[in-house]
Amino acid sequence: KQEVTQIPAALSVPEGENLVLNCSFTDSAIYNLQWFRQDPGKGLTSLLLIQSSQREQTSGRLNASLDKSSGRSTLYIAASQPGDSATYLCAVRTGANNLFFGTGTRLTVIP
Amino acid sequence: DAGVIQSPRHEVTEMGQEVTLRCKPISGHNSLFWYRQTMMRGLELLIYFNNNVPIDDSGMPEDRFSAKMPNASFSTLKIQPSEPRDSAVYFCASSSDQGQPQHFGDGTRLSIL
Fold first, then answer.
1. Exposed, middle or buried by CB within 10 Å (0-12, 13-18, 19+), for B86?
2. CB spacing of A43 vs B31 below 8 angstroms
3. Which residues touch B69 (CB under 8 Å, ≥6 apart)?
4. Residue to test with chain B: of A38, A44, A52, A92, most B Cβ within 10 A
5. Is the Cβ of B22 closer than 8 Å to some Cβ of chain A?
6. Mean pLDDT of each 10-residue bin along chain B, 113 residues long
7. Tens digits of per-residue pLDDT, A32-47?
């Protein structure tokens, strides 16, 4: 069974700092990997989706990379803002449309 | 464009009662997913439908849980009888096709007393 791990579990940074969130998965046979953001009491908002054939995706200040062979992905956030404070989840899709989620990294950006 | 709509947002009920959670996917999406989120286990897929047909229900905890999708715009997740360990946030998500991003509703926070 696919296991997805996110490190660190929590992270606090001062506003303006660049940061990297890490995601690792045990089975490299994935279709794609998706990064989500979850605000308290809310559902998940999709940030970036990387297909298995891709190495990275960018959206604004966010950049996600994928190294399928080593079972790793990173989410890079540039020039962090207080509004970026949330829990960030990565999820890998295996066959049969199943998403396996990590337990998330809770990010706090301090003004 | 409306996103995935779930109801109710909150549900508090006594154990043994029947609970029905509802979901309206994004119009045009043909895949629908039910997830459960707890502190201990994180997000887990319970069941998903493709074109209204259940494809994988291996995540459904036990026979007390059932899900239906009578048409492309509506799905229910039912728990009967409910137990305190069913307390969690239940999310519904939909996608336009396999491999496309899943879009989540705001969830139903369920508390079984």
1. buried
2. no
3. B32, B49, B52, B53, B54, B75
4. A44
5. no
6. 91 97 96 92 91 90 93 96 96 86 92 96
7. 999 999 998 888 999 9
